Amino acid sequence: MSRSALITGLGFITSIGNDATSVSASLRAGRHGMVVHPLWDNPNVAVKVAAPVRGFFVDSASWRDWTWPERYELPRETLRSLAPHGVYAFCALEQALADAGLTKADLTDGSTGLFCASAGSAFMQYHHLSQAHAGNFERGNPMGVVSAIAGTLNFNLAAHYGITGAVTGFVSACASSSHAIGYALDEIRLGRQERMIIVGAEELNADTILPFAPMRALSVNPDPATASRPFDSARDGFVGTGGAVVLIIEEASLARRRNATAYAEILGWGQASDGHSVASSHPEGAGLRNAMQRALRDAAVAPAQIDYVNAHATSTPVGDRAEALALRAVFSDAGARPAVSSTKGLTGHGLSMAGAMEAGFCALALREGWMPGNPHLVNPDNSCDGLNLPRETLSVAPALVLNNSSGFGGSNVCHVLRRV
Fold first, then answer.
1. Among residues 116, 174, 362, 384, which one is catalytic?
2. Rounded to 5 degrees, what angle do the CA atoms 363, 344, 325 make?
3. Cα(336)–Cα(351) distance, integer angstroms
4. pLDDT digit string (tens) for 93-120?
5. In whole angstroms, how large is the CA radius of gyration of the chain?
6. What 8-state DSSP symbol labels residue 386?
7. pLDDT (tens digit, 9 = 90+) per residue, 182-210?
8. Can 116 be counted among the known catalytic residues?
9. If 0-12 CB within 10 Å is exposed, 13-18 middle and 19+ buried, where does residue 137 land?
């Protein structure tokens, strides 16, 4: 367990930028990626705002119609079995490999593993099943299953890159990619793998996002500038987004041998379940409190040593309150006041990719020396009393950060990252 793990490569396809430079600039400037989305131009649908990815067209069920930035080359044989969010993942992975100074040939000797997080593609599933029903199941797309089900990312990426190490997918809703990071850390600590690739990706379409509307989980605020406002007393739900984020995590001695430049060290992690509700957070954030405490214990870090917390807070009334109470129990009660913010105020909520996306943001902040603020926060909820919620980006270099994620069923996962 003495082996340490470093983040040596990042790839971003997000609503606030499609590379590390643009993402960092958006986070530092407090620039959001939300718009009134034409996909939902239906007066009877109350949800009007979403946070799309720019520079891609993947709205068709046919891969032949898709477009992406010219810098990426996606071969036909790979495209045939991808879902739309698989295109985002492929491009983000190409970015991360280049950032880490790796090639496809470096991934094939069994020392590299791949952990992915995705809910699959409800859009493609509906399309393929509709075709099958129309033909009374006498015909169908031979790639329909592998392009649509929840393992589509790990199937496609492992095959394309020839990865022969540990490969699997994680499905714990909005905690999925955080679980992937935690178990990847364990793979490296235990000596099972030298390098892990973490991929989180989701689509932004009606099939993925609008099923949350009957749960009253989505914001019906029509103003893109205020629809996502975590911890604010006027918040009314989350804003959906899609995209992909990839992290390359390597055992420290391997990274040193390669002269790789590290963004951050993953120092520890923890997880805990609420054991409370299939869909709602524990009212006092009990599971998240336990997960934070376990992550701090695993990292051998005291609450007072944490400089910044990237909160899961999605801008829902129940979830944000529960997290605020959990943060107060872990930090305020110990006399600690780390800066706390939720970058979902800028990006929207990326569902299963959220944990990886925000771990990537934390890695940027650690290497570049700043901490994101809460630019859409006007009137903090009463549950936030005592928390340090800066409005603007802080030009202060954190040494230790905590990244929180929570998902359906009360899955809570937290990571501690340290500046290298």
1. 174
2. 95
3. 29
4. 999 999 999 999 999 999 999 999 999 9
5. 20
6. T
7. 999 999 999 999 999 999 999 999 999 99
8. no
9. exposed
How many helical (H) and strand (E) elements, i.e. helices and strands, does the chain have? 13, 12
Q: What residues contact 396, with CB distance under 8 A and at least 6 apart?
A: 307, 339, 369, 370, 371
| All structural domains of the chain | 5-257 (3.40.47.10), 266-419 (3.40.47.10)
**CA neighbor of 340 nearest in space, from 400, 305, 387:** 387
DSSP bridge partners of 207: none
Q: Which residue has the tokens 């131009």?
A: 41
At residue 1, the pLDDT reads 52
Using one digit for the tens of pLDDT, what is the confidence trace for 136-166?
999 889 899 999 999 999 999 999 999 999 9
d(C-alpha 142, C-alpha 254), whole Å: 40
pLDDT value for 181: 98
The catalytically annotated residue of 160, 349, 376, 415 is 349
- The answer to whether 312 is a known catalytic residue is yes
The residues that bridge with 35 in the sheet, in sequence order, are 50
Give the Cα separation of 367 and 349 in Å (integer): 24
Q: Give the whole-angstrom CA distance, residue 54 versus residue 88.
A: 11
Of the residues 37, 85, 160, 312, which is catalytic? 312
Q: Return the pLDDT at 41.
A: 74
127 carries an active-site annotation: no
3-state SS of the chain is: CCCCEEEEEEEEEECCECCHHHHHHHHHHCCCCCEECHHHCCCCCCCCEEECCCCCECCCCCHHHCECCCCCCCCHHHHCCCCHHHHHHHHHHHHHHHHHCCCHHHHCCCCEEEEEECCCCHHHHHHHHHHHHHCCCCCCCCCHHHHHCCCHHHHHHHHHHCCCCCEEEECECECHHHHHHHHHHHHHHCCCCCEEEEEEEECCCHHHHHHHHHHCCECCCCCCCCCCCCCECCCCCECEECEEEEEEEEEHHHHHHCCCCCCEEEEEEEEEECCCCCCCCCCCCHHHHHHHHHHHHHHCCCHHHCCEEECCCCCCHHHHHHHHHHHHHHCHHHCCCCEEECCHHHHCECHHHHHHHHHHHHHHHHHHCCECCCCCCCCECHHHCCCECCCCCECCCCCEEEEEEEEHHHEEEEEEEEEC
Global pTM reads: 0.96
Percent pLDDT > 90 in the chain is: 94
Using CA atoms, how far apart are residues 204 and 50, in angstroms rounded to an integer?
A: 8
